[in-house]
Backbone:
């Protein structure tokens, strides 16, 4: 798979450059917080890159995922029963790990002594398959009800009504016996909640994960575990047949289910293009862009044929046409493309790949979803480059001082005294900058409060107007994300203001006093101040379990008495859920001004302490050099050593520039 190929090369280059920088920097304080940068690089090394695949049941989702993987891993000839997320990754051998709802885990690896049988893959198929007898009942939704209940589910009018409303299936009362039979068979120890499957896939990008979410119309919506995956995914691919082109489930998925942040990563993948003419496909794609242009950008509406891509994979692996034709589905679509290849005098494999339209899809997803990771690479590399440039400046300054010491020790001593006095003045200048910034942000300007009031008004209305749990969840997450964005905006603004103020003062100070200006890593200080400000659970939402994971449908608080029975009141539960969502939202948003003040105080205190420490360290080194007694020969040798270090830095800066240019 071409997704992530270039990123992998860029990432390896950045890690290599960082390792070289870490080894070469020595004891020079170049203004880079090496521990903070190392943490960022470790996150880079251990990160996962996730493509989450969503869509309706029977939309061709499993075939599409297999085409993405380049291997037929998920069963496509049966209806999938699993209501669990299936996460697929590259590994040396097949390995399956399943967590069941009763808490027990099953781990199965491929037995290398039986090369013709892939036990892990067969077990995955077994878990995902649904018995033919249960195809006309909402099994994954029933699974969810079994998992949430502490008792054996009673199949009554209440449950039937709930299943019909959530699944969209009608006349389920006629299948009551079938539902009862399914519930008796389907105990908690048989219901998977998490599935991870490693397979020797033929791609280079080891960090890539393909996540198969349950069909959006199979469980009455998107489960919390799937929602969490969508929130963290690099790209979400919603699979839908190219005909019929209109999709209520896609509109609902965008408008009422996933968060606005997830919407920014969304693609609509229209499948089964290979059975229509090019003109018809172009017309249908244009219609989809018109229909959904208000939901996602037009360049993220893509058309593919997954079955043709699987045939292309077969041909790449040397499978004969005769063998491919043994699959009835592949045989049907293959014949017309064999004729096309003969008529045009082209290789069948090329015609098939072109018709699958996967090349364009891979390119579009790669280009889009690598933007954020590439920005992260650029930021790390820019920091490494700035460290090298500061080292070069410091080395040059020290070399000049040593030349002076060798030539005229008395003049050298006077120069050291002059620099120390200049550093004291710079310390006062940074204190003045810090005080001015603190003064500017005291009593935060009215636009900040207006922004907070606007957040309150907007999301209170959206949460209260929600007509479902999913919709209330979506709006609550959007509200929390908006608060987080506002908090991040505040800390970024602090960094920018401080950076601008220092740059303005530094230029004139450097010209006047002829010294290299001490630097501190403002981005590292920003992150440390935020981390310290939000570490307390009572003030930081992000340490809490989201409320939609705490509240369960089975809560007895939302049952009403109807005659001699207690029945679940969906409306009462929804009203209570919305009230709780608003309470949590208000608790966080009302605390935002106070938290911002905490961030400001921590940030400026960290800045002052760090700047004082850096200046003190520089002054101490200068005094030590002044007191050090050495021969001219020893000084000359140190100057040569410094010149070598400076020459070693030049190729590294050049390489940083080359990789940066390539990434950009």
Residues:
């Amino acid at each position: 798979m071409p997704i992530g190929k270039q990123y992998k090369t860029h990432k390896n280059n950045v890690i290599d450059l960082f390792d070289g920088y870490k080894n070469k920097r020595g004891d020079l304080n170049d203004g880079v917080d090496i521990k903070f940068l190392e943490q960022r690089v470790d996150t880079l090394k251990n990160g996962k890159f996730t493509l989450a695949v969503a869509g309706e049941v029977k939309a061709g989702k499993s075939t599409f995922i297999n085409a993405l993987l380049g291997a037929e891993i998920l069963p496509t000839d049966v209806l999938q029963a699993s209501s669990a997320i299936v996460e697929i990754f590259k590994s040396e051998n097949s390995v399956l790990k399943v967590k069941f709802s009763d808490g027990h885990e099953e781990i199965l690896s491929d037995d290398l002594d039986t090369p013709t049988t892939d036990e892990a893959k067969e077990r995955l198929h077994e878990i995902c398959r649904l018995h033919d007898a249960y195809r006309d009942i909402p099994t994954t939704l029933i699974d969810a009800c079994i998992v949430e209940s502490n008792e054996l589910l009673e199949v009554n009018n209440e449950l039937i009504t709930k299943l019909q409303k959530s699944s969209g299936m009608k006349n389920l009362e006629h299948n009551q016996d079938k539902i009862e039979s399914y519930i008796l068979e389907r105990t908690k120890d048989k219901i998977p909640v998490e599935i991870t499957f490693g397979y020797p896939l033929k791609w280079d990008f080891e960090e890539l994960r393909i996540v198969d979410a349950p069909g959006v119309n199979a469980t009455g919506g998107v489960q919390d575990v799937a929602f969490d995956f969508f929130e963290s995914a690099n790209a979400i691919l919603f699979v839908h047949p190219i005909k019929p082109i209109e999709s209520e489930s896609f509109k609902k998925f965008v408008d009422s289910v996933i968060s606005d942040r997830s919407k920014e990563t969304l693609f609509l993948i229209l499948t089964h293009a290979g059975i229509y003419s090019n003109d018809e496909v172009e017309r249908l794609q244009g219609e989809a862009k018109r229909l959904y242009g208000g939901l996602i950008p037009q360049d993220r509406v893509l058309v593919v044929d997954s079955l043709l891509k699987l045939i292309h994979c077969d041909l790449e692996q040397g499978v004969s046409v005769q063998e491919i034709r043994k699959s009835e589905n592949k045989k049907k679509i293959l014949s017309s493309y064999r004729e096309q290849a003969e008529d045009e005098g082209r290789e069948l494999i090329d015609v098939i790949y072109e018709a699958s339209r996967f090349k364009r899809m891979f390119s579009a997803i790669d280009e889009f979803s690598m933007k954020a990771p590439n920005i992260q690479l650029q930021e790390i590399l820019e920091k490494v480059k700035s460290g090298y440039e500061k080292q070069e400046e410091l080395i040059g300054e020290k070399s000049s001082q040593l030349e002076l010491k060798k030539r005229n020790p008395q003049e050298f001593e006077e120069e050291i005294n002059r620099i120390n006095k200049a550093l004291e003045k710079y310390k006062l200048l940074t204190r003045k900058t810090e005080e001015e910034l603190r003064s500017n942000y005291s009593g935060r300007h009215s636009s900040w409060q207006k922004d907070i009031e606007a957040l309150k008004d907007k999301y209170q209305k959206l949460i209260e107007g929600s007509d479902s749990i999913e919709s209330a969840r979506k709006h609550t997450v959007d509200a929390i994300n908006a608060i987080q964005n506002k908090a991040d905006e505040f800390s970024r603004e602090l960094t920018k203001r401080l950076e601008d103020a220092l740059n303005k003062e530094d230029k004139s100070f450097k010209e006047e006093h002829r010294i290299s200006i001490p630097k501190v890593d403002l981005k590292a200080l920003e992150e440390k101040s935020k981390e310290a400000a939000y570490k307390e659970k009572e003030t930081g939402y992000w340490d809490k379990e989201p409320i939609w994971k705490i509240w369960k449908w089975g809560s007895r608080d939302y049952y009403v008495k109807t005659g001699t029975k207690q029945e679940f009141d969906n409306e009462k539960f929804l009203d209570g859920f919305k009230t709780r969502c608003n309470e949590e939202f208000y608790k966080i948003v009302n605390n935002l001004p106070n938290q911002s003040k905490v961030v400001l105080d921590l940030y400026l205190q960290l800045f002052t302490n760090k700047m004082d420490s850096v200046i003190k360290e520089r002054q101490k080194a200068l005094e030590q050099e002044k007191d050090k007694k050495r021969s001219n020969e020893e000084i000359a040798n140190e100057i040569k050593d410094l010149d070598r270090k400076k020459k070693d830095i030049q190729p590294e800066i050049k390489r940083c520039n080359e990789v940066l240019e390539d990434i950009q």
About this structure: The chain is about 60% helix and 10% strand. The two ends are 22 Å apart (CA to CA).
